[in-house]
Amino acid sequence: MKLVAVLVVTLLLFYLVRRKLLHVDFSLPWLLAIIVLGFASLSEGFVSWVARLLGIVDPPLAVILISLFLVLGLTTFLAVALSRLRYRQISLVRHLAQMELSSQEKKIAPNHPD
Amino acid sequence: MSSEPAAKDKVLVFLPTYNDHTELLRIIREIESQGPEYRILVIDDGSTQVVEPGSLPDHVLQVRLPDNFGLGVCTHVAFDHAVRHGYRAVIRIDADGQHPVDRIPNLRRALDEGSVDLCIGARTNRNDGNDGNGFRALVSRLIRQYLSVVARMATAGKSPADINSGFMGVSLKAAKQLSRFSLERYPEPQIVVLALRNGLRVGTVPIEQAPRAVGTSTIGLSDGAALFYRFNMFIIGEFLQGRNHK
Fold first, then answer.
1. Chain B contact present for A52, CB below 8 A
2. How many domains does chain A have?
3. DSSP code at position B162
4. What CATH number belongs to B7-241?
């Protein structure tokens, strides 16, 4: 059942990429998150090992901690990606405005060397 | 057009506008009456009320941004254009009718004399729509004072008392230098600090700000909080850098 759940989530990810609802560049962190959480759900040994490593007495709490780190990681990744897009958008707007204004400038002062 | 001065002899006066177009034509006429050396650029920052293309004189440069990007991007657009076409200075004046157009020559003269690279129209009064005794007025005053104190700390006491005035002029050299940075949504304090920390000379000319002729202040409480946060992040970044950008 756990394996089916992991497969369904993985297929959902591929579907989102295929339908161009999620860009392939942004799908990698999600795929990594699914792999880590899938591995944690399928292997109790892995969860126990992580719990021992972090000094957590109750192993299920390690799963919550792993999930929390993954959410933080994904949020950070998305915030960085959005910020990068914002800077690119501003750069593009500045470039377009320059093209538009240069064209107007030539009409107003046609002899002026650009 | 043969008498048209080359751009290097001209001063670019830009008017960022966001849903405050009603005073535009009057301000443009007033700027034109100050002399032939001014080229006017209207930057519509994604207004919901669109400025009709034919409503402004043909010789006025006009660009409409596809969305509301804020004054930082408007300033970048003006600086980019001035640098590309070699205007000798850039002056910003708001489109809400609060800034005294007849003080534009004072800014230009200060820049032409070469004693300053950035000249700010320092307000001797406020009339910014945030006066009064309400909670908003109190927060506004506190934020202004805080920005002023921090800016002084960041510039070894060189920054002027009024660092929030949007009425300002910059030389071509300053426009080139400031273009390298990413100016934020309310960029006035940031511009002053960046200028001083990059070895540019900053001066002021006193102005009286008229009551707002159109619209309301775009800075509400949430915008004030955002401005406060952005400025703090910017200043922390400057202190972490720990040296001038030169």
1. no
2. 1
3. -
4. 3.90.550.10
